[in-house]
Amino acid sequence: MLADLIKDLSRIHTRDIRMSTFPHDNSQVIVTGELMDTRYIKIFDITGKVLEPGTIHHIRLFCRIAPDPLRIVEAFADMPVIPMEPCRTTLDRVPLLTGLEIKPGFTRKVSEIMGGTRGCTHLATLTKAMAQEIVHGWLTEKRRNPAPLPDNLEDIKEKGFLVDSCRMWKKDGPKIQALARAIRNAGCNSPKKL
């Protein structure tokens, strides 16, 4: 097993990505993402220069998220630690995230905005990874208080980013089946299929 192969080894590099969501006002949330790359050994870069162990990248992204449709309404990023000063010039792409909806195609749009030579691959990676935190963080804030069941499955407000997002949320999967049972048990209309 692979886990056994590494149990006595020392790591040489880590990438940590941490995301958090904070309540805001008007049904909005602020979602933060932080990417940290750490090298644990000395290496030689492509020019032969010696690079000592330490933090290589520390990148932070802050997004204010609004519902209906779920979207980024404000974005800010900084780069406290970078390997080269010109890396910070890629921050000019961050304001272009404003207005971007969190829905299928989000990662493709992020690539169009800041992928390749237009931006920073690490900032683009962080932004793409934040999509799930945006959804889960916003849903957590939204569901602080009980909400009425929809009248039927067609009325699931979040279906655009939940239904068919994974095996549990597929149209005939366990989450939709549980919701259909809850609608029936509540005496609502017969749950229509999606």
Describe it.
This protein has 194 residues and is of the alpha+beta class. The chain contains five helices and six strands; from the N terminus they run αββββββαααα. It has helices spanning 2-6, 106-114, 121-142, 159-162, 174-185, and strands spanning 13-23, 29-39, 43-44, 50-51, 54-66, 71-81. The strands form two sheets. The protein has a four-stranded antiparallel β-sheet. It has a two-stranded antiparallel sheet with strand order 3-4. β5 and β6 form a beta hairpin. α2 (106-114) runs antiparallel to α3 (121-142). It is globular, with a radius of gyration of 21 Å. The chain starts with a helix and ends in a 9-residue tail after the last helix.
Quickly describe the structure:
The chain is α+β, with helices and mostly antiparallel strands and 194 residues long.
Distinctive features:
about 190 residues, alpha+beta, 4-stranded antiparallel beta sheet, 5 helices, about 25% helix, globular
Total number of β-strand segments? Answer: 6
Overall geometric form: globular
Q: How much β-strand is present in the residues?
A: 25-35%
Query: Strand order of the main beta sheet, please?
Result: 1-2-5-6
- Mean model confidence by pLDDT: 92
| End-to-end gap | 41 Å
Low-confidence residue ranges: none
User: What's the tally of helices?
Assistant: 5
Specify Rg, calculated over alpha carbons: 21 Å
> What's the helical proportion of residues?
25-40%
The helix-strand sequence is HEEEEEEHHHH
> What's the main sheet like?
4 strands, antiparallel
